[in-house]
Write a structure and sequence with these properties.
homodimer, five-stranded parallel β-sheet, 6 helices
Chain lengths: ~150, ~150
């Protein structure tokens, strides 16, 4: 077997209203790949978010992608596909590790199913939640903005 | 004169609700320092923002600072001082260039005064506004969030 130089770690998410919780998640994801990790991030398309969460993100997909790619920890950020499926993602990116956040149980199940069905060797790195910081989620940020206006 | 290895570029701002406009501003600021530029960013304290803009930022200062420092283009991000003054900043950071954004006329004037009074050699790099992108300012983002809730 030829040893690959890089360990490809794949993470995904919406990354709407980028905050420190996102960055810490991505940093932990990359750490899971060790010293030679390359972190590829799939940023969900507006249409996919709308389908899955029933609401559109605040920031448009191109800006969410570009902002994620401007983070030091990220090697490459790409937009997802309209007909998003974990199998397709695995096929195209060929990750060694898929990082799954504390609020991504759905994705974790899909990855587990894909591993079973396709008999691929792939590690799942479960990333914990960080010390509950103020405003570490996009919905908390939205709530705070609305509260500050209604005051 | 001993030639310094690095060209220190200083940029400053609130960087509330980090967006692509911020990143492009910082990228252009660093470019102004050429190949050996080191970009130091002063992130305004909550108290300073409150005093200057009469409203507190949405995101707390520690998180704004940490998020700015997680950008690839930024070498160091530090919080401002309670008794903020451009003279003090210049004294401590000793920048070669101060980058000034399209909406930072006030800071530009203060820098010009400091240059005159202290007779220091310091370049001001005026950074233009970028192709008007959707949601390239924190207040536009706040407006969009409020609109989306009121719908």
């Amino acid at each position: 077997m030829v040893k690959k130089y890089k360990t490809i770690v794949l993470a995904s998410g919406t990354f709407d209203l980028l905050h420190l919780g996102h960055v810490r998640f991505l940093e932990e994801a990359k750490k899971a790949g060790g010293e030679n990790a390359e972190l590829v991030v799939i940023v969900a398309r507006d249409s996919t978010v709308k389908k899955r969460k029933r609401k559109k993100p605040i920031m448009p997909e191109d800006q969410r992608r570009a902002l994620v790619e401007s983070l030091r920890v990220v090697d490459e950020a790409i937009l997802g596909w309209e007909d998003f499926s974990i199998e397709k993602v695995i096929e195209r990116i060929k990750p060694d590790i898929i990082a799954v956040g504390h609020d991504q149980d759905g994705i974790e199940k899909e990855v587990q199913n894909a591993i079973k069905e396709k008999k691929i060797s792939l590690e799942i790195a479960k990333i914990g939640r960080f010390g509950k910081q103020e405003l570490d989620s996009s919905s908390k940020i939205v709530r705070k903005i609305i509260e500050s206006v209604n005051k």
